[in-house]
Amino acid sequence: MSTTEPDAELDGDGETDDRGDGGDEWDRDGDLSELPPSAKLVYKVLEYEAPLTQEGIAAESRLCSRTVRYALGKLEEQDLITSRACLEDARQSKYRLAA
């Protein structure tokens, strides 16, 4: 066997957890494991800093606004976040984790 081929016998069952996060934290309802990395980052930002506007999420995560919009859409599809109109500026929404 070459050194570049994975050794399936080392894991016992041949399956590996390639997320590198320990598994359980991101498997809340099994939804986060299937999301892109940007959505996971946005989720984590909201976990610690919510409620935030898209602009606030972009600033905290250092992602561009287009990527934040995409990530928010993916999170909303999975019902992991909710949004409400921002009282300070009705043109914006504030996002938070779904209860």
Automatic annotation (TrEMBL):
Annotated stretches, region: Disordered: 1-35
| Alphabetical list of InterPro entries matching this protein | WH-like_DNA-bd_sf, WH_DNA-bd_sf
Query: Whose protein is this, by species?
Result: Natrinema altunense
* Entry coiled-coil feature ranges: none
Q: What is this protein called?
A: MarR family transcriptional regulator
Q: Which domain of life is it from?
A: Archaea
Q: Where along the chain is composition biased (Acidic residues)?
A: 1-16
